[in-house]
Structure prediction request, 754 residues.
Amino acid sequence: MTNALKVAWDAIRDFLGFRRHNSYTRKYLNDANIRSSIYMSFIIFAIEIWMIIRSLNKYVIPLTKEGNSFMEMLFKHTSQYWLFLFAALAMLVFSIYYMVEKTNRAGKRGYTVRSKVIPLIFAIILIIYSFFIFKETKYFKDWSVTYYKVSNVGVILLYFFSFLEGITIAGHCVYKHLKGENNLIFSIVTIVFFSAICLTFGFKVGYTDYFSGFYRGTALPVKAGTVVELGGSYEIKAAYCFLTMVLYVGCLLIWKPYISLITLSATFWTFAAMLNGDPANRVFADGDVVNYITFYISLTIITISIYQQRISEAKKSENLERIAKYDIITEIYNYSHYVREVEKILKEDIENLNEYYYIFINIQNFKTYNDQMGFSEGTIFLKKFATKISEVFNEFPSARESGDHFVAFTKVEGIEEKIKVLEEFIRTDANGLYMNLKVGAVRPIERSEDINTSVDRARYAAGTITNKYGKVFAEYDDKMHDSYKKKQYVINHLDEAIENGYIRPYYQPVVWSKDKKLCGCEALARWIDPKYGFLSPGEFIPTLEDVRLIHKLDKCIFESVCRDIRKVMDEGKTAVPVSINFSRLDFELMDAVAEFESLIEKYNIPKEYVHVEITESALTANQSHLQECIEKLHADGFAIWLDDFGSGYSSLNVLKDFKFDVIKIDMKFLSNFEQKPVSKIILDAIVKLSEKIGMLTLTEGVETKEQADFLSDIGCGRLQGYLFGKPIPLDALIEDIKNGKYTVSDELIGVNHN
Ligand code: C2E
Ligand code: CA
Ligand code: CA
Prediction:
């Protein structure tokens, strides 16, 4: 029950607008009011001009011709129009400068002199003009007649509110000058006074119009208490001015519902009371009463509904603005907002560009943290780290770029200390897990440069130290610039290179360890470019993986290999099986299984002639899709080879989860082979382990005879390395077979040795 009461009470509070809004909504509503004030004051300005011209024609000029003083007649017949005109003008100028400044990026840089001085000038004109009240009182008529009394009080109030409007606008200008920003309170009060002027005008003119219609035909003034005959031939009783003004103030501006309710009720009631005046002298006909009340109720409802609508708009707009500006997860700026902010800073805020850095920060090994601690803990960590970044780089914007990547903009001076703070944070908050920072930096060159390119360069610089232990910071230099450009070149020319046949497989021999006869080869991609010459995979494979285009290259290699095997077979030569490198991304970016199998079919290649190599690092995360693809290939009759075994972190797990035909032992076990006896023990153990779980072995990177002999002794079945041959084009390989450098083994298909 109490709950239901509370819900009801909350609903009533919302309906009446008793709730205090956050500063965004308050500002949103106020801005909407300021915008409406521009229309309102402009229309009023135009109407007053029209009224003045009308009065000139109707009264001032004819009366001047009759010998009266022009200035005197002008004042007598148009003074209040002028007052309203100046009030509207002051409001108009004030509102425009209020809005214009908002889009000019408020805050720090302060405001133009114009934005304070021009509204001030109009405010002063209004203030000065409001002193004409002392001249106006000379025209006041008999205070004992209600009709004149209302008119006189109306005039006094008009001048009074105008004076106050002038004062608040002037006050706002002074505030803006001192504080350098717009002030919400001043603008609200200004709008209130302007509304008061409108309402007073509505009252006064509405009242006098109504009664002049009413009294038309009878002699004015009518003394209080005079009984006026109803039902006579009186003209139209117009309260239009009153109704227009309440409509204006009620519907164009947004007030809290309870304020609208109070204001409108008081206004309508007072006006009705004024018209009715003496009960004995009732001028308000019954039919009018019904219409009048209907109008009052409708207006009140419309006003409240506009308010509710605006509030929901404000909330939506606030949400949109938040999404446009902030990263949802870390709640610091998002990347696009960072770009916008830095663009402004480059153009306006800083002098010597060379003293600044774009910063790119990568948390290395964050994936492990996520894997070990769980996704939500990972999110919490990112959030804390983001907050730290925004604290450390507090003078300029910083943002989350994506994943565990962050960007900042900062002074060159003091960068070391800032990075130290972040490193310290990573160390203490990593829960004992090994993570570290890789920070790249690049200096701005031009004020109008493309921020994305600069950030990309900082990212590139960070990437160059990815595998350099202990190195945290790298600044983009000329050397990096060359390789960066090469990287861009690779990305932009991949399609062209594939089309023109610049990319093709080289073949590296694989031999049986027992007799060193050729038992197969590995296809390794080469890019022979007209501009850059010979490119090795290290110069394009990681780049293409980064930008997720690797599948295009791999598809091209698959097809070339199939074509080569077909060609060899068609020429009646002995083809050897070829192992082909698959990237983990191939399975994400295309239907790799279908693409591969359709090529095999197209070139009619026996399945035993191609092996699928998948690198160990591709298999670390638990990826069911990848696993399914591999199982499918396996089931379809292709041998699956595990590449680079021992180079990653989770080698043994991989053996548990997947079934491989051959394990390619990474060449790093052979480095310092002679000096490190432990390598031999490990190699021996790997070969034995593989044997036990039913997988064959191949060791890569065999460069010396000692290595080959040792591997052969421990029972590693296949060998590959420079000792037997580097990767070479197909023709060269065929030539080497012909001239006896390689002897093709008789045991190629269906025979396996460990
Ligand atoms: P990988 O698959 O481990 O290939 C073996 C790499 O070791 C090759 O480098 C090869 O030239 C090199 N190598 C072979 N024997 C020796 C040796 O005795 N000593 C030394 N120091 N190195 C040796 P390469 O051709 O530069 O390829 C590098 C990597 O690029 C490959 O490593 C593979 O991961 C990737 N890659 C090459 N071609 C392709 C491809 O067509 N598709 C995909 N996705 N990746 C490819
Ligand atoms: Ca390989
Ligand atoms: Ca390898």
Notes: Residues 22-239 form one domain.
